[in-house]
Specification:
single chain, alpha/beta, Rossmann fold, 5-stranded parallel β-sheet, 9 helices, 50% helix, 8% strand
Length: 165
Amino acid sequence: MTIERGLFTDLIYIIDMSSIKELHDRYPKNLFPTIWDNIFGAINNHQIFTHIEVNREIKNTTDPKDKLLVWANKNKNLFSGIDDCQIQQIPLIKDKFDAGYWNNNMNRLAPWADPYLIAMAICERATLITQENKTKPNRIPSVANQFGVKSLNLLEFFQELKIKL
């Protein structure tokens, strides 16, 4: 499923669960309405997406009454499925991960969205938003960087969009 871009949308961001959780935990809407107005604006303008695997991660790791899960259920347009381009990228991405790390994550019971997010970012020429460490191997930023995909944490994302607190 190719991401539907807005008419004047050049910048596309793919957001990881770590950043969605960080948004909810550290930047609650009642205290940071400007951030949330910008986030919802970007979602509505087809600038921010995430993979359906992130939705599976959220459902797997949160209580049914958790605010994050309630929010995810209300914002289903944020989640996009896999397409042919992503399917073609997965084996290439796999080669960039340590084999043991890959096998442990792909064979665990819980969903693992990382390779799908990287594939989505490659296919959509998007920037990834993640709280993962940029220097550790086998993490989204270091693997994505090998494909020329830029990664930002939330604060860097806020700076790039010039979101003021």
